[in-house]
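Course assignment 3, question 2. Fill in each field.
Student: A.L.
Task: Predict the tertiary structure for the chain below.
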Amino acid sequence: QVQLVESGGGLVQPEGSLRLSCAASGSSFSVYVMGWYRQALGKQRELVANIGGGGITNYVDSVKGRFTISRDNAKKMVYLQMNSLKPEDTAVYYCNAKLPIQTRPDSGTWGQGTQVTVSS
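Answer field:
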């Protein structure tokens, strides 16, 4: 089973950029659909973006054109490049790994989360 460790969160000013990284351990990394989710204070966790083993990506509308998800299967890494950050992007960001048969939003393996705060 895969294990996940996120890094790269922090405090950034509006319109700034951050890159989140997720390091995976375990076997068969390339078969997993990797995703970034976020949970703001008082809100439900939501999918931000995901990427299949072959590189097909999916984004929530609110981050399209600003965020880019990518993966390096050889290094077992997933990244989320976040540009033009807004205060409403403030949340704890979680890395997630799902097998293709795991379709429930809360399924799969989760990292511990990394805080992203967008504030002046």
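Instructor remarks: The mean pLDDT is 96. The longest strand covers residues 18-25.
Grade: pending
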